[in-house]
Please model this.
Amino acid sequence: MITNKTFDEIQIGDTAHMERMLTKQDIDMFGVLSGDMNPTHFSDEYAQMLLERHKLVGHSMWGGALISSLLGNDLPGPGTVYRSQQLEFHNPVELDDTLTISVTVRSKDAADGSVMFDCRAVNQRHEDVITGVAKVKAPTKKPTAAGSPYAAEHFHRKTAFKRLIDYVDDWEPIPVAVCHPCSKEALEGAIDSARANLIDPILVGPEAKIRALAESLKLDISPYRMVDAIHSHDAALKAVALCRSGEAEALMKGSLHTDELMGAVVSSATGLRTERRISHVFAMDVPTYPRPLFITDAAINIYPTLEDKVHIVKNAIQLAHALNIQRPKVAILSAMETVNPKIPGTVEAAALCKMADRGQIEGALLDGPLAFDNAVSKEAALIKGIHSPVAGEADILLVPDLEAGNMLAKQLSFLGRADSAGIVLGARVPIILTSRADSAEARLASCAVAVAFAQRLRENQKVKRSVQG
Model:
């Protein structure tokens, strides 16, 4: 239910606030909507050359729009009409900055039903970004019906990734072996996650190179342990050894090829293999979907067999449980909703569902084969006469092969403006795979997922020891 505060209900001193991180998606969308395509908002080189800023700079009025959002959605809320707005801009908003927006009632005028608000935006460094005063005409009536699903979902939306990060916010950081953090993105991602109290990084790589990079980026890495390595291959072996010994509870990919890192992981003698097949999960934050969407496997198993898919789906279910999704809904994707012997994926989908019926796969609701539209749209499923507790409400999408999964994830990213976090499961520890294109929030979400999964592994080990004892 969307509600508001009417003029009569509003009291002097009433306040509302919200937090919002500036993402690349925000910059792109605001530029398109406003027509302000100033290159300092879209090019690192221009931002550094013209403004001497280390990161992209967001549009100043993006922060002003957040003030408008808070007035229109929260206080007074629906029915509010702007009369005037005065703003002063004190500091720029850089990519990945988090603004705290607040509005506070200063005065009321019964003659015209107007309310004056003090407005403020502060960044994560507690610096004033915007201050000002807004005058609005407050609503006199309250809504009598629920707001539209679009308004409830998109306006003032708390992202799926933010919910994941908040879920582990109060937990102890876990020790993470960060393998070869020799690029700006890799080192900043690890340090940002440490500052967010998600991980305690162990920086594994050429020490002199890492220290020089940190100095150039003005990053303080003195609180963190370092393990010197000759090159990326040596770093992979040493990072895996830290996980194998128990000194690290997760492994994070830095600036080396995934194949090089995974080669050390899957080594039969010194790696991190278990009885479970290793698989990858994309955790997607899709703006048009109300919950995190997990896609598996889109990065490791090229043409998985039915036996492989059992392991892949079990890994994904275990991840969902770690994130407090008690009974995840698994949609097994194909090109159609019926079993067709000419399309092996449909037969395997049916077999997986029957295995779930017989208790061979536990802890989730499985249905398939389902086409993508039926998996994520209840309306599409009803039109086709599909009645299923999974259809339209999937948490996990099990894809038929790597090509299909990779294309699906990238379509959601580049056409659907989705953010993606990546994690590899089935090894002794979760493995965090990040990309240079990942946003700061996506990198934090990858770490949050790993923290949750590592915590679940701890709990499982405790249970196992108590049973054995």
Summary: Residues 71 and 77 are 6 Å apart (CA to CA). The domain at 277-426 is CATH 3.40.718.10 (Isopropylmalate Dehydrogenase).
